[in-house]
Amino acid sequence: MKENPLVSVIMPVYNSSKFVKTAIESVLAQVYTHWELIIVDDASTDDTSAIVEKLAAAHSKIRFLKLTANQGPGYCRNKATEMARGAYIAFLDSDDLWEREKLLIQINFMRKNNCAVSFTSYLHIDEIGKLLKKRIKAMPILSYKKQRSNNYIGNLTGMYHAASLGKIKSPEIPKRQDWALWLEAIKRSKKPAHGIVQDLAFYRIRKDSVSANKVELLKHNFNFYKNHLGYSIPISIYFMSCFLWEYFFVRPKYIETLN
């Protein structure tokens, strides 16, 4: 039997003292134990770094870097990616959670199916961890073309095989960094990403989340096509129409309300 590969878990943190301990504990509780957790603190001004430092001191598999100036979550993820030593790279934000078998199921699935990019279904929870009766279902097969039309990979569920694809960094764009990263991962793999239908993660909806202006979001999406992917204005407009079609008529099929 092949040796279990190392998984590098990337976690950016910023002023997350209320949730970060629970997020880290969900990694510590993983049934699959061959992992490293790389946490980069984006110059938090609350007790986040003290909480992380205490846990890192008690667990040798946690590696911690505290920045002296705020750089943004994309920079933190890229810094952690530079530090990563794993054959696989996965992501977990400091207010989200994983099921105990998340890594085990995902690694076994990827190795069995010779899959370089995978993601899973996940559930929404509130600030105290209560289920919000909303499931985001993973699309079983996700092509580059489909991912280009809309971001179907929840970042907290995604994993890619860095040993074959290389390390992938988030581009320096204001928004849609996760979308760009997973699109690049599928492109490098030269085959579709695979979705695991099980609910293996929990995405926390926070009360202090700022609702983004819809017009601003459309601008960011347009700039994703025009500036990041380098498409002309007419082609970017075409892909924006594809995005809107997916958003209103296709994506809802993968959002389920639970009883």
Automatic annotation (TrEMBL):
<dbReference type="InterPro" id="IPR029044">
    <property type="entry name" value="Nucleotide-diphossugar_trans"/>
</dbReference>
<feature type="domain" description="Glycosyltransferase 2-like">
    <location>
        <begin position="8"/>
        <end position="157"/>
    </location>
</feature>
<dbReference type="GO" id="GO:0016758">
    <property type="term" value="F:hexosyltransferase activity"/>
</dbReference>
<keyword id="KW-0472">Membrane</keyword>
<keyword id="KW-1133">Transmembrane helix</keyword>
<feature type="transmembrane region" description="Helical">
    <location>
        <begin position="229"/>
        <end position="250"/>
    </location>
</feature>
<protein>
    <submittedName>
        <fullName>Glycosyltransferase</fullName>
    </submittedName>
</protein>
<keyword id="KW-0812">Transmembrane</keyword>
<dbReference type="Pfam" id="PF00535">
    <property type="entry name" value="Glycos_transf_2"/>
</dbReference>
<dbReference type="InterPro" id="IPR001173">
    <property type="entry name" value="Glyco_trans_2-like"/>
</dbReference>
